[in-house]
Design a protein that fits this description.
Order of helices and strands: EHEEEHHH
Number of strands: 4
Number of helices: 4
Helix content: 10-25%
Shape: globular
Distance between the termini: 27 Å
Strand order of the largest sheet: 1-4
Radius of gyration: 12 Å
Length: 112
């Protein structure tokens, strides 16, 4: 089992999870984070820290797509270990449907 970041992170990107990760397995895209599935130790400390409830165990049904997205982009995006400010409209983006289709960006973020 590993944890994955789901669609709920897109354009929310709160980064509270980054601070608590003991193995620094988060990677930053332009408008979301992902977890590297081979680095995640399945400790689960990140899941309750996410205000958008975007982090889920990959054992939940229907998360296969997100495991693939996390694996693909963790190998392309820079590592992030330091929490920064969330986007100004993060609270407004919580709960917006179909964010992957509408807003996902494959571009990398800043990283550390």
């Amino acid at each position: 089992m590993t944890y994955v970041v789901t669609e709920a992170c897109i354009r929310c990107k709160y980064m509270d999870c980054v601070e608590v990760c003991p193995v620094d397995c988060f990677y930053e895209g332009d408008n979301m984070l992902v977890i590297h599935p081979d680095e995640c130790i399945d400790c689960g400390v990140c899941e309750p820290e996410c205000p958008a409830e975007a982090i889920k165990p990959d054992t939940e049904p229907g998360l296969e797509q997100w495991l693939e997205v996390n694996a693909e982009y963790a190998s392309k995006w820079p590592n992030i270990t330091v929490k920064r400010e969330a986007p100004a409209d993060a609270d407004d983006m919580q709960g917006v449907p179909d964010k992957f289709e509408k807003f996902f960006s494959p571009e990398p973020g800043e990283g550390d």
